[in-house]
Amino acid sequence: MPTPHSKLHTRLLFVTLLLLFSPTAARSDDIPANDWGEFFTYYQRFLRERLPRAVRNTGDKAADHAAKLENHRELAALTARLSDVCNGFAHSGKFAPVTDPAVKKEDKNKIAGTWNFYRNVPPNAADLWQEACYLRFVSLSHEAEVDPDRLEQIHEYANQVAEFEALQRLHVRMKRYWYAKTLDNIEQASGFGLQTSGSEALTDVIRDFQPFLLRHLTVEHIDLAERFVIASGKCPSDEISELLHSLIDHLPQRGCHGVTALPAELFERIELARGLLRRVELMGKDMPVWGVDLTDNVFDASTLEGKVVLLDFWATWCAPCVAEFPHLKNLYEKYHDRGFEIVGYNVDSDLEQLSAFLERKPLPWPVLVREKNLEKGVASLPEIPLSTYYGARKLPVVLLRDRHGKVVMLDARGNVLDDVLEKLLE
User: Fold this and answer.
1) Average pLDDT over residues 341-348
2) Which site from 159, 167, 200, 284 is most exposed, i.e. has the minimal number of CB atoms within 10 Å?
3) What is the distance between the alpha carbons of residues 290 and 311, in angstroms, rounded to a whole number?
4) Angle in degrees, CA 393, 400, 285, rounded to 5
5) For residue 385, pLDDT beyond 90
6) How far apart are CA 89 and CA 95, in angstroms?
7) What's the confidence (pLDDT) of residue 191?
8) How does residue 389 score in pLDDT terms, banded at 50, 70 and 90?
């Protein structure tokens, strides 16, 4: 019996069906559906005639891609039909026993000892059914524009294969695709920020995502969790907030029983996701600041009391961050004497590179350093760096708080910042 996963990707790249080019065999309606012996012969021929095929490149990438996709669609339709016929035989009890004289000796050798039904289908059909699901997924997921109906089909396929251990990789891939494309559609929908259909769709997909994430906890899936959090900031609702907190709160933490084997990178990404949710909901709340500078001095947060404070997370490799410095310097010079303060928080891992940068382009405000925070291990500081606390993984991240310590801007950049500062410092 063919091994389920070993041949799928190879087949997709360089195989096809000779029978697709036959005027009779190419039609899925010609598959024998009433006689098991005839179907078995047809199916064995189907397997034998899947031969390598040279791919002709015409030079037109769009045309070549369309032709390849069309081949996938044709193969998907045929394998899906074969799978359905297999299921029909399985449920009707029309299987030929392995001792049936009509079964050739070479075919007996193929199926001997493999008459353990998988999803109630006959020998080799397990591989066929798996391939049918995979090809249907490929033919759908290659669409440039994935509409809700196609996404729902992919979601249904993913749920169908979820219970079969041999198909877990297929299940995870399909679900991950569904989450990502559904998020794309929500984010691009007209009126997304108006708490209309976007909010309802986001609620449904987050509810579906939680058990999936807990079962398949990977960095890639934490990326998806972060996208959900960011999307929630565009169409906020109490229900979405509760779902996200439930999602993040159920993720493992360092020191918890049974989770010590998880990679350090995964723990870090989980904490960043927690910080991102904290930041998205930060408006009107306190914004604590802590850290250590390049010379190992612990920052005194009391110096910020009663001031309007801009907290700028940046890195030397972040071009938008560095491009904003001239504007920030102008604002600092203009408003510093009126009670405006900037605190930079650098997330570079290379401190020599950071030192060289600050020598070339010195900044007039305090610059705290993530790596120093990690090295120093100051007992008086929280265990996690400030950048992790606020989920500042994708830069730039710039927060602004008023004289009372309450956050008033979550993206304090550009010309709008000038107007806000003028009002806060009146």
Assistant:
1) 98
2) 284
3) 11
4) 90
5) yes
6) 6
7) 47
8) very high
Q: Which amino acid is at 303?
A: T
Average pLDDT, integer, range 366-389: 83
Would the pLDDT of 354 be above 80?
yes
- How far is Cα 426 from Cα 415, in angstroms, rounded to an integer? 18
Residue 362 is encoded by which pair of tokens? 């010195």
Residue 351 and residue 369 in contact, taking contact as beta carbons nearer than 8 Å: yes
The SS3 of residue 145 is coil
Domain boundaries, the chain: 8-142, 181-280, 301-424
Say yes or no: domain 301-424 is CATH 3.40.1280.10. no
Inter-residue contact 121 to 94 (CB < 8 Å): no
> How many angstroms separate the CA atoms of 153 and 157, rounded?
6
Alpha-carbon gap, residue 237 to 199, rounded angstroms: 7
Residue 78, token pair as written in the block: 């045929």
Q: What is the b/e burial string over 366-389, where b = at least 16 CB atoms within 10 angstroms of the residue's CB?
A: bbbbbbbbeeeeeeebeebbbbbb
On whether the CB atoms of residues 89 and 36 are closer than 8 A, the answer is yes
What value does the CA radius of gyration of the chain take, rounded to a whole number of Å?
29
Extract the tokens encoding 274. 């927690």
Residue that wins the pLDDT comparison between 106 and 403 = 403
Reported in sequence order, the residue ranges of 339-424 that DSSP labels E, i.e. its strands, are 340-346, 367-369, 397-401, 407-409
